Amino acid sequence: TTTTTTTMRMMLHRHRAIHGTASSRAEPAEEERGATTAKGARRDAQPRATTTLTEREILAAQKDPSEYLAVPSHRIRNFSIIAHVDHGKSTLADRFLEMTRAIPAGGRKQYLDRLPVERARGITVKAQGVSLLHRDEREESESFGQTFLLNLVDTPGHADFSFEVSRSLAACDGALLLVDATQGVQAQTIATFYLALEAGLEIVPAANKVDMDNADVDGVKEQMLSAFGIDPDDVLPISAKTGMGCADVLSAVVDAVPPPRGGAGLAERNDDASRLADADADRSDAPLRALLLDCHYDPYRGAVSVVQIEDGTIRVGDSVAGMAQGGRGSEVLELGMMTPEPLKMPELRAGHVGYVITGSRDVKSAIVGDTLYKPSDETIAKGGGGSGKKIAPLPGFRAAKPTVFQGLFPQSGDEFEALRAAVERLVLNDASVSVSNETSVALGPGFRCGFLGLLHADVFHQRLREEFDADVVATAPTVSYRVRYPDTPETSFEDVASPAALDEKRLHQSGGRGGAKGVIEEPMVDATIICPADAVGKVVELCVDRRGSQLEHAQLGVDRVMLRYRLPSAEIAVDFSDELKSRTSGYATFDYDDAGYEPADIVRLDILVNGEAVDALSSLTHRDKAVRRGRDMCARLKEALPRQLFEVAVQAAVSGKVVARETVSAMRKNVTAKCYGGDISRKKKLLSRQKEGKKRMKRIGNVDIPNEAFAGLLSTQSAQRRK
């Protein structure tokens, strides 16, 4: 018995040593959970702002699919929330989710911001949609007691994600224009308003954060009147945080926003309920046409497409194809709506917005803006058994035009294929990014990617790290120039988005047609800046320093000014926004639109290390700023390069002429340490022999720049340091 007891104690002791007790296991789990939430490392789990609401309770709050399918298309409202950054779009979406009982109260804040990068930065970078059921409780309303299906889209507010906004507005019939009552009309507010106006959407204006002590509701109404021509009486005062006035916003959306365009939309002004029902039936029985709004990659199910059904009905088991895919059909495996969690549906009808999962595993087959249809419908039409009309594609989206280009390279050559797969899957979810192959002598194979701005590029890098574990080395940002060489016609221009693509020898050669000379044109933007009146001088000084020309100077209210400048795109691509915030104490806002091209004196700045040009460090810049930028690059490269056994010269050259130089001193061995006294000629002889050896090493030695040095040099955080 004693032996058995001793053996059991030893086994228990060993078990505790390996696995720990219940209490000791719980504590590390809590610490690990807290660390995971803080870093946002878990990609499959969303961080929560509260622990009072579990995922099971959220799923239990979902309504039955039949309730969504029972709503006729003339009672569907598609609208989006548009506003400047940090004006309360996501918070207002949270209130709508709670008011319509899509989720119980007490869930995480900014529920529709699903990406880890969004929750880490506190901004919306990806438009997210949700389908809500809203019952009209106004007794004085004609629609009292009726249930409406509200398809809400929460859009980003930063200018770098304008493609997400324009794509979302193309799927909507109305827009809720939100303005912060404490900040007033901002630059992006103006930009998004005119986007919605061009799309022909009904605008529902609202002033948010009216519960704040420093809210100026009357001032905001006056600003909206002067900037947009909106009647102050139409502006709804609300507080998305407390929920005050949010019910009035939903009622205004129901009254002002029309139903989806189509057969039901033509009859929606008629009060005859039977005619509305007939229009709904005709539209649902028509051949399928669905607009592909968005897409993302699921590692288990492949491409998950978000679509808006314009006409017809799609069911599980149907074969669908995209018109841009050449008619290759795929079986529909799953349909559903985001409510806000995925809710499976047996079918989607005209007016619905939902997701479609097919049997295709090819991530390139889903093209945003494509029209999905049933090949069987087209076959019937061609065979004469149907209407005899070919299915017409839906108007797609205007392609995004990148303004900032960067080279993306893996940390090592072995990781190139993994980076290729990660970029392809991420571009599926961000159609505004352009990708092409590029090879660098210093960094090896990689990609030349085009972005809509520097923040857009930074978010893309972060998503590669967080979602695909892909660490990249990014080259310095540049813009796309247009070059006309002397031996080409006057109207023939070539796009140059990389310094390596510029042929300087051909550009400056003589003997062109009629003595023509080469020309380089740089892209221009029309920038809109809204700032306090007391900061106008600093803002004007910044714009003049960036080679800008003033277009407009207008007063917005008493203490706010709107400035419009035409600026080179290259001057705003790196640190213009940060410098603007610094000079105005963070109160200025900035937005821009393309303004064509203008001739400019652009040169290529080459960085030479030990006499060899490093292509990854080359850049295109204006001649007036080439010397300053060259000195800055040489100084930073000197700090980043490891010392060699020989002296290394770091130079900046423009058109073969060196304009800046730094020297990395050699590591030296104390060859005179063994000489204790004696004639000085002995020491001179040793030093002379060492000097000759250093010269010989410099002639035959190569300087290997590590990737860590590239990552530090090319980081956008340290670009363009000023004295």
Descriptive report:
This protein is α+β, with helices and mostly antiparallel strands and 723 residues long. It has 22 helices and 30 strands. Helix 20 (626-640) packs antiparallel against helix 22. The longest helix has 21 residues, at 680-700.
Short description:
With 723 residues, the protein is an alpha+beta fold. It has a six-stranded mixed sheet, with helices on both faces. A six-stranded antiparallel beta barrel has the order 7-8-14-11-10-15. The protein is globular and about 110 Å long.
What layout of secondary structure does this protein have?
Elements: H1 2-19, H2 22-39, H3 55-60, H4 65-69, E1 76-82, H5 89-99, H6 116-121, E2 128-135, E3 147-154, H7 162-170, E4 174-180, H8 187-198, E5 202-208, H9 217-228, E6 236-237, H10 246-256, H11 263-267, H12 273-285, E7 289-298, E8 302-311, E9 313-315, E10 319-322, E11 330-338, E12 342-344, E13 347-349, E14 353-358, E15 371-373, H13 375-383, E16 404-410, H14 416-429, E17 434-440, E18 444-451, H15 454-468, E19 472-474, E20 481-484, E21 494-496, H16 504-507, E22 519-532, H17 536-545, E23 549-556, E24 560-568, H18 569-572, H19 576-583, E25 589-599, E26 602-609, E27 612-613, E28 619-622, H20 626-640, E29 648-654, E30 657-664, H21 680-700, H22 707-713
Parallel strand pairs: 1-3, 1-4, 4-5, 5-6
Antiparallel strand pairs: 2-3, 7-8, 7-15, 8-14, 9-13, 10-11, 10-15, 11-12, 11-14, 16-18, 16-19, 17-18, 20-21, 20-22, 22-24, 22-25, 23-24, 26-27, 26-28, 26-29, 29-30
Helix pairs in contact: 20-22
